[in-house]
Write a structure and sequence with these properties.
InterPro entries: Cell_Envelope_Assoc, DUF218, Rossmann-like_a/b/a_fold. 51% of the residues lie in helices and 16% in strands. The protein has 7 helices and 5 strands, in the order H-E-H-E-H-H-E-H-E-H-E-H.
């Protein structure tokens, strides 16, 4: 009986991983509603570049780079992005208070409230979007409209496996009220 229960849980876990791997976050549709702001989570290639493109296109008014290293400056970003210094100076904020996805959401919540925004475009990698959106919805609740906007990537098996485990463990921790 215990072996069957363990086998069933293992099968559920494996099927969950397959579903997770084949249903990664998607970029926002071109017809997605404009939002007041965008929050981009650091840690993956193409994320900040995409956020600046969204800003340039007028789909948002302001961007928070959440989880930025405190040593990084807007000038550093300007050099990395080959221009756009004026845009970075006026409309991009560097947030260095957060160290993980949950604290990214908390930092973003304070920033959104300070600027009196009502909607946010969440920008992160496709493999990270499910957990990021979960954390943001938990912290922001229904006070803000969230538009997920995933940056496509080609994650390795280990990246997907690690992210799936983080997502499952976080969901279990919330369920167990830990």
């Amino acid at each position: 009986m215990i072996a069957r229960a363990a086998a069933f849980l293992l099968l559920l876990y494996a099927l969950g991983f397959v579903m997770f791997a084949f249903t990664l976050g998607k970029p926002a549709k071109a017809s997605a509603a404009q939002t007041d702001a965008a929050v981009v989570l650091t840690g993956g290639s193409g994320r900040i570049e995409h956020a600046v493109d969204v800003l340039r296109e007028g789909k948002v008014r302001r961007v928070l780079v959440a989880g930025a290293d405190p040593a990084v400056t807007k000038a550093d970003l300007g050099r990395r992005l080959n221009g756009g210094r004026r845009l970075l100076q006026c409309c991009v904020d560097l947030g260095s208070e957060s160290v993980d996805t949950r604290s990214n959401a908390e930092e973003a919540s304070r920033w959104l409230a300070r600027h009196r925004f009502g909607s946010v475009r969440l920008i992160t990698s496709d493999w990270h979007m499910r957990r990021a959106e979960y954390e943001f919805r938990k912290v922001l609740s229904s006070k803000y409209r969230i538009v997920p906007d995933a940056v496509r990537s080609e994650p390795s098996f280990l990246t997907l496996f690690g992210e799936y485990n983080k997502y499952v463990l976080r969901r279990l921790a919330v369920w167990a009220d830990l």
